[in-house]
From TrEMBL:
GO terms for biological process: mannose metabolic process. Keywords: Glycosidase, Hydrolase. One of its GO terms (cellular component) is lysosome. SMART domains: Alpha-mann_mid. One of its GO terms (molecular function) is alpha-mannosidase activity. SUPFAM superfamilies: Families 57/38 glycoside transferase middle domain (SSF88688), Glycoside hydrolase/deacetylase (SSF88713). Residues 174-230 form the Glycoside hydrolase family 38 central domain. This is Alpha-mann_mid domain-containing protein. InterPro entries: Glyco_hydro/deAcase_b/a-brl, Glyco_hydro_38_cen, Glyco_hydro_38_cen_sf, Glyco_hydro_38_N, Glyco_hydro_38_N_sf, Glyco_hydro_57/38_cen_sf, Glycosyl_Hydrlase_38. The keyword DNA damage does not apply. It comes from the Eukaryota.
Amino acid sequence: MDFEALFFSRLHFLEKEIRVQNSSLEFVWDSSDDLKTNILTGAFYWGGYGPPPGFCFDRECLDEPIMDQDYLEEYNAVERLNQFVGDIYKQASHQRTNHIMLLMGGDFQYTAANQWYINLDKLISLIRKNKTLSDKINIFYSTPSCYSMALKEAHPKLPRKLDDFFPYASASHSYWTGYFSSRPTFKGFIRQSSALLQLVKQLQSFTMQMTNNSILRNAVALAQHHDAVT
């Protein structure tokens, strides 16, 4: 089964600036000259792959929750709704269709899933109860698959991309290319220890002798994490 689309965050900051300006965050990527393949591709509008600023509702976030009971001293529903709708329009102004993918989450998120869904339900409800807003904004829980289907059905005229995304820079003088050549000795240790671990596991399986190899397993797992190996 083929992939329907590719959505990602890490895009060279200068290329992203240009794509935001000319509404080309979504495009068709001709990803292989040899295979003659292409795929619908989208780069996320907001920094990273999280929600608009101020709308993270996880345990580790400090953003204000939606207080929609008007008798509360901390009542902020109108203010928060206006901010949220402003973010929706801001993102929509850089898209080529009437559909936008609004991301709500991030790394290590939904450890307090109930907080997320309570606040998201409130935002959705506030928009739907507002006749002026609900006539213009149809907001609902969705998936990347549903979004890509809606995008294709809209038949937008999308630009094409022929090259790849390297080298990648997140800011001036911040190029993420060192991991191809950095720390060669450490990477050699990782390769050797990983091969040794696989050999140990195979011998354990063959001999049915389940000796404790947790120290080696933990060391290899830690070293192979992308923040360590690079």
